[in-house]
Design brief:
The protein has 140 residues and is α+β, with helices and mostly antiparallel strands. 44% of the residues lie in helices and 22% in strands. The protein starts with 5 loop residues before the first helix and ends in an 11-residue tail after the last helix.
Length: 140
Amino acid sequence: MADQTEQEQAAGGTLQAAISNAIVRLLREYTGRGPTRSRTTIRDNVVLVMLEQTLTKGEESLVRKGRQDKVIEIRHEFQEAMREESMVKVSELTGRSVIAMLSANHVDPDLGAEIFVLDGGPSYNLESAATSPDGRARSA
């Protein structure tokens, strides 16, 4: 089976699910472990990706030893390293430019937030992605 683009995958689900999956995949690539749960909310030109249980075993060990500040620092470094790729993915999926990205982490409970500000509301039409370039319906 041919590889699908993320926009084509979005056609089978929702834009929110496609964005969640893209961010989870990036986190997994960078940290070796993705969050156990993610949820994307889109309102106007703001995309919020909430992540749960993101910490690696090593980070959890640091938290148990009272080193939460170091875990937050490490997470900030990962977010900065992923920033450009995350923005590109969200831009591709929404059909909009990402003009700002904000990230935050909380250790207890283990939560993360990725916030993307677009240059307008998403312009990506899931219905149009369900058809091939020649206008025929894609098979699911």
